[in-house]
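Design request, tokens follow.
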């Protein structure tokens, strides 16, 4: 079993290594890949030192699985080269998510969609993953009609330079800037680039990816995504309208039984999900569960998850585990 991590020096790449160790993911050989400027640099993993290798070396090594966390342009160029060699690529970028020939996978929801001929598997957007983990079992029970979601997303979703910008601003230090405005003491209603319809690419990802994962194009979805100065994870205010009526007690029971979900909803004790508590955890936390009293069959939820974990690294590793368990990796 030969495993490659593409983008091993980035935030998600580093989180992937943590997840692999925590889940005791078994492999015989580990290939760590990064940009040419990092080739030869050592990375420690489970008490052993590994040297960063180039993309060309990794392709020629023909890994069984390659997990990509190196950006869309890198994935578009290199994922097909790995796939041609027979490597299964699990890609964290947006490059392949809406390609009709590629599967967009959250294992708990639609792992069954993966077949033996799928060589490039797309990992969904972090904010999409945590929302669908919470909504998929409710969709199955009551039928989603419409979703209105507003996100409050961590700077870690942008990468190392964004974290550095936040910390520099907090310390009053001049440094590299990745946002068009100050992020500390601020909220930016601007994640990714604006599209012709006035929405950002991030907002449209949530619309299109949710429909693809839930396999239902009839769901009405609208999204506003906001970057805030937090580190631990993304938060989402989700308003979900269903075709069928529900009882709040049943909603809570369904969520409590859903794989990967932890219900934190004791408002009388001030218990509700927060990114500071989700940080470093793989679960999706759901709270503030209440009816929308302005219209029938509609629910409000507060959904929080560590975007580097279930939103990226953990979901990718779970896809690899699923494929190995089902014998889909030769």
């Amino acid at each position: 079993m030969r495993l490659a991590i593409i983008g091993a020096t980035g935030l998600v790449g580093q989180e992937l290594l943590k997840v692999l160790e925590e889940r005791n993911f078994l492999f015989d050989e580990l290939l760590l890949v990064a940009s040419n400027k990092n080739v030869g640099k050592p990375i420690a993993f489970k008490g052993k030192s590994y040297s960063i290798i180039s993309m060309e070396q990794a392709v020629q090594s023909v890994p069984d699985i390659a997990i990509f966390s190196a950006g869309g342009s890198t994935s578009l160029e290199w994922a097909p080269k790995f796939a041609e060699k027979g490597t299964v690529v699990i890609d964290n970028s947006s490059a392949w998510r809406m390609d009709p020939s590629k599967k967009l996978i959250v294992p708990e929801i639609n792992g069954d969609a993966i077949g033996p001929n799928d060589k490039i598997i797309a990992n969904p957007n972090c904010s999409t993953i945590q929302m669908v983990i919470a909504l998929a079992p409710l969709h199955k029970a009551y039928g989603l009609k419409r979703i209105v979601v507003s996100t409050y997303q961590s700077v870690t979703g942008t990468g190392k330079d964004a974290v550095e910008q936040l910390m520099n601003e907090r310390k009053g230090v001049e440094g590299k800037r990745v946002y068009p405005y100050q992020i500390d003491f601020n909220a930016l209603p601007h994640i990714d680039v604006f599209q012709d319809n006035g929405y950002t690419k991030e907002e449209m990802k949530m619309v299109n990816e949710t429909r693809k994962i839930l396999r239902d194009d009839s769901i009405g979805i609208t999204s506003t995504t906001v970057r805030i100065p937090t580190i631990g994870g993304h938060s989402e205010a989700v308003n979900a309208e269903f075709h069928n009526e529900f009882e709040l007690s049943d909603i809570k029971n369904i969520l409590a039984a859903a794989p990967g979900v932890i219900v934190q909803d004791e408002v009388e004790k001030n218990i509700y999900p927060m990114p500071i508590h989700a940080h470093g955890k793989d679960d999706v936390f759901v709270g503030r569960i209440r009816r929308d009293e302005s219209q029938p069959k509609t629910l409000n939820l507060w959904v929080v998850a560590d975007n580097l974990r279930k939103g990226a690294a953990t979901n990718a590793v779970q896809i690899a585990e699923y494929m190995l368990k089902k014998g889909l990796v030769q």
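Comment from the thread starter after seeing the answer: thanks! Residues 126-142 form the longest helix (17 residues).
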